[in-house]
Task: inverse folding
């Protein structure tokens, strides 16, 4: 079977959210001698880009998005042991998390999926993340953007706290800060000195690209 056909099957598996198919065709790609990065770029990534496009068009919904992400991860896990010393090319690096005291993650996870689809490398800190952990991981991960999510009116103040802490630690000028969440608006972003605000996942990628000067 031609390499192009294998990669097409792999892409289709991600698009259909079929973890078993993706794992199987990833293994077939390896057996056929296809380089791991080619499997990612021309197979898995094309599939997840298709998922993202269908989600943005309203054809796919949250469950479809999450299934596609899980299917892609199934392929990545097969490839990881073979990728020592190889580096994927990303357009930017994003650190994401939901603030301390807030356990909401669906919106954050959708944004992460959209960012990955667009070519960003993303580290997810999860939920209920203390401000200090954002600082520690900013030093270790060295992101170009920090995304801070807050879904409760009682926790939005944590976004301001993190920005102030970045300033105190001498890190503020090294990163762009993007915020989001149901109670958040542009006025709040301006008030606390955030660099960007995304009202929903569909515009988060554009905001991230603008912050890095990748779009006008």
Result:
């Amino acid at each position: 079977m031609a390499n192009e056909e294998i990669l097409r099957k792999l892409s289709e598996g991600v698009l259909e959210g079929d973890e078993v198919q993706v794992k199987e065709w990833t293994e077939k790609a390896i057996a056929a001698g296809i380089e791991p990065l080619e499997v990612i770029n021309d197979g898995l990534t094309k599939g997840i880009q298709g998922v993202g496009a269908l989600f943005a068009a309203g054809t796919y919904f949250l469950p479809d998005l999450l299934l596609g992400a899980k299917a892609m991860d199934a392929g990545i896990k097969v490839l990881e042991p073979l990728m020592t010393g190889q580096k994927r090319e990303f357009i930017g690096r994003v650190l994401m998390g939901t603030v301390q005291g807030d356990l909401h993650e669906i919106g954050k996870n959708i944004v992460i999926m959209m960012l990955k689809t667009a070519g960003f490398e993303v580290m997810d800190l999860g939920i209920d993340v203390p401000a200090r952990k954002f600082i520690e991981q900013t030093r270790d991960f060295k992101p170009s953007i920090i995304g801070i999510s807050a879904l409760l009116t009682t926790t939005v103040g944590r976004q301001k706290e993190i920005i102030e802490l970045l300033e105190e630690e001498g890190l503020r000028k090294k990163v762009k800060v993007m915020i989001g969440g149901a109670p958040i608006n542009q006025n709040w972003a301006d008030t606390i000195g955030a660099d960007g605000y995304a009202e929903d996942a569909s515009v988060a990628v554009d905001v991230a690209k603008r912050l890095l000067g990748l779009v006008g």
Observations:
- The chain has a mean pLDDT of 92.
